[in-house]
Amino acid sequence: MNAEAITTTAGLTGVKTHYCPGCTHGIIHRLVAESLDKLELLDQAIGCASVGCSILSYNYFNLDMVESAHGRAPAVATGVKRVHPDKTVFTYQGDGDLASIGTAEIVHAAHRGENITVVFVNNAIYGMTGGQMAPTTLPGQKTTTAPSGRDVAHCGMPLRISEMFAQIPGASYIARCSVHSPLEARKTRRCMQKAFQYQREERGFSMVEILSTCPTGWGLSPVNSLEWLEAHMVPYYPLGVFKEQKEE
């Protein structure tokens, strides 16, 4: 094991997380913290987490955190950023939160070009509340509320949030990444740093969507959940940068 693999980051508190075995929220937390640390933004960062598996993230991030109502993190982040324009403000949201309950807040924040960064964790399910079907649940994917699998004739197709947001004029940087392998995790960190850099340059709304696992909700082992993500989620949710506004 090399030195980089065993070092910690100043952006995390070291508190043991509550996440299920195999959940990749912990990896994503570290990537967010490392990105802020790399850009020397930790001392001015404010995170806005909403209800979901990330509800206790204030225990893990070594920075100021605000707990928001379900789906309302973009509205809270908007208020925080407008009051403290010199701060680096980000939301940390799951797919049930961002793509369903809080769709109005996130869409309008992007259309207004709010100078915030959104960390969007997509595991294609409602994780904390019992494994229900989410707007991002894949066709045929089984959940507690769709035991026979998502029926697109009844529920429609899953939302591709990054593709949608890439069409919004107020959005400056939109990327979709994953953490199912070390290589993809390193790519995610680079995208995260780019998103925060865009905010520092006051270029408007930025978002990094991250494909994540939910072994408990999916009914799979940690290893099998990583394989399932790569085999099933990546084909429907292709990875890459969907919008990168160039400097004028």
Features:
single chain, 248 residues, alpha/beta, Rossmann fold, seven-stranded mixed sheet, 7 strands, 17% strand, globular
The coarse silhouette is: globular
Overall number of domains: 1
> What's the helix count?
10
The largest sheet is: 7 strands, mixed
Count of individual beta strands: 7
**Span between N and C termini?**
44 Å
In CATH, what is the homologous superfamily? Thiamin diphosphate (ThDP)-binding fold, Pyr/PP domains
| Strand and helix order | HHEEHEHHEHHEHEHHE
- Assembly form of the protein: single chain
Average pLDDT metric: 94
Q: Provide the spatial order of strands within the biggest beta sheet.
A: 2-1-3-4-6-5-7
Under the CATH scheme, which architecture would be assigned? 3-Layer(aba) Sandwich
Strand content: 15-25%
Q: Helical content, roughly?
A: 25-40%
The CATH topology comes to Rossmann fold
Q: Structural class from helices and strands?
A: alpha/beta
Tell me what you see in this structure:
- With 248 residues, the protein is an alpha/beta fold.
- The protein has a single domain (19-244), classed as Thiamin diphosphate (ThDP)-binding fold, Pyr/PP domains (Rossmann fold, 3-Layer(aba) Sandwich), CATH 3.40.50.
- The chain is 37% helix and 17% strand.
- The chain contains 10 helices and 7 strands.
- The protein has helices spanning 3-6, 25-38, 73-83, 95-101, 103-111, 152-155, 161-165, 182-200, 215-218, 222-236, and strands at 45-49, 64-67, 88-94, 117-122, 171-178, 205-211, 240-244.
- Strands 2-1-3-4-6-5-7 form a 7-stranded mixed β-sheet, sandwiched between helices.
- It is globular, with a radius of gyration of 17 Å.
- The mean pLDDT is 94.
